[in-house]
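Recall that a protein's primary structure is simply its ordered list of amino acids. Everything else, from secondary elements to tertiary packing, is in principle encoded there. The following example makes that idea concrete.
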Amino acid sequence: MNPMYRVAIVDDDDGVRQSLSSLLRSLGYEARTFASASAFLAALQDPPDCLLTDIQMPQMNGDVLQQELLARGCTFPMIFMSAFPTDAIRERVMARGALAFLAKPVDADTLSCYLAQALE
């Protein structure tokens, strides 16, 4: 039996969190949702197997979240998404080891492929 991988979803938009959570559960993953980067960091004592995070969020954006996670030695795969993707941000997060940088709305098949690559 395959283990149930835990994927953390960090996005300040409740609708996005809910829809991605439903998609991930339908793909066989356990989805844990967080409304902010700080809420995710507060729960980091139980790290996920993969992180799916928005870039544009108040207080701490996804770019800064990635820097903080790397500074803490986190090595789980990270997938970033943005409704306003720019080459500069894409290049920055990818240079730091991101698995993917996806434009919102995220294509379910594309996300599924990246999650499979990260976890299976």
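DSSP finds five helices and five strands in the chain. The domain at 6-119 is CATH 3.40.50.2300 (Rossmann fold).
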